[in-house]
Each structure stands twice: as C-alpha cells, then as structure tokens.
Specification:
Blueprint: H1 13-16, E1 22-23, E2 46-48, E3 52-58, E4 64-66, H2 68-88, E5 92-93, H3 96-102, H4 104-124, H5 144-151, E6 155-166, H6 168-177, E7 181-182, E8 185-193, E9 198-206, H7 217-226
Parallel strand pairs: 2-5, 2-6, 3-6
Antiparallel strand pairs: 1-7, 3-4, 6-8, 8-9
Helix pairs in contact: 3-5
Amino acid sequence: MSGARTIGERPRAGFLLLYVAFMGCMHGAPAVPNRLPGNQIAPRSVAAAPPQVFVYTLDVNDDTQLEDSATGEIAGRAMPVLNGIMEDNGAHVVAREKSTACGVLCEQFFRWGGIASLEIGMQRHHIQTLGFHSVGDWRFPLDLSALRQAFEADFALFVVLKQTRRTAARVMMEGLARMPTMGKQIDVACIYDLRDGRMVWCATESDDYGDLSDPGRVSFVFSKLLREVFRVPPLQPPPSINPTSPFK
C-alpha cells in the first residue's frame, strides 16, 4: 500500500473495533518517523483538540464493547490535565464556541485526528500496519483555512487514550492458551500542521499493565507523551497496580 491516506479513506467506526487489541504482534511494519523533532515545535503555536478516550471490554469471543461510564470518567480526568499543560505553555485547548462555529468540518477533523493518531500508534507498536513510512503520510485534505480560524494556531494537537479491559473469562482463556492480548493500552499524542495538511510529530506509549483509572495515571501518561514539546509536570513513578483491576 502506498500514498497518503486522506479523509475519504477513513475506516468506518466499526472497523476501528477490529484492532482494539490483538493476540500477538505484526512484525516488519514500516517505521513511521516524525517530520520534525518535538523540540522544534513552538508550544505557543499549538492548539489542542479535546482529548479522546476509548475504554473497551474484550470478551472470550473477541467481541468488544465501549464502556461509556469508564470512558466518561477517564475523559473527565484527562480534560483538566490537558488544559493545565496547555495553559502552562502559553497555548490553549480549542474553545467550545470555536469548534461549534466550525461545525461539521471540525467534527470531521476531530474524528479523523483521533483515528489517524491511533493508526500511527498501532503501526509504531507493530499491532497493525497501513504500510506508510512517515507520520506525514496521514493527511486531512479539506479546508485548512477554516480549521486555522477555529484553532487560532498553526498546529493542532490530538491526544488519544485507548484502553482495552478483559473479562474474567477472557483472562482465563488467555492463560490457558498462553496467548496474551497485546496492545491493551495505546496512548498517542500527534501534532498536525494546519498550514500544509499533514501530521508532523507523534509520541506513542504502549502499556499492558497499568490502568488509566488508577490515581495519577492519566497525568503520568500526558507528561510522558507531551514532554518533548511542552513543559510538563515532573514524571512521578506510576502508582502501584491494582491487582483487582478489570484491566489486568
């Protein structure tokens, strides 16, 4: 597969569930390097889209279900963390009235950015591949001038936290089969250039042991993802893992 991926080629929402998590990894996936080092992006030139959080449950039949309650709880923790980081760096999260005025275009852009960021994270961690060779191969081809007006910035930041929890039966099945599910948690931050229509930088983390619902975990993840571009709170060791967590 070659060439850049545009909005017209976005997978349907249902397709996203097909790579929520995998048993095993794909080897030989092309690397997707950044176009710019993060420290060459001025924080004040970046505006953030609201963080996107997805918490799924995976059962013994490989069926997945979005957990609305857990997703909402973690998203509620993520928003003030992102707001704080952006404000500390003289940047901002896109105001609700700006995105509302932007209308369908911003909705499409937010959705595209979330999926594109996850795709980059999945390919970097060898969970799935689209065959692309740079983050710049992910493009959003619609009206950039309207997006720049809504974001009031040269760059747009997307942060996506994706976690897959397993049912007790799923955990037992994996133990018996000795085939653990990989990619249970993929966290991604990507910066998109609102001038040329391409992704320029991404940071990704894969964690199959922690739980985003643990105290302090969301702040820790944000600091790890964004520290190359922004001033962030000092990294604290992750909290001890809760052995009764549904994530385990």
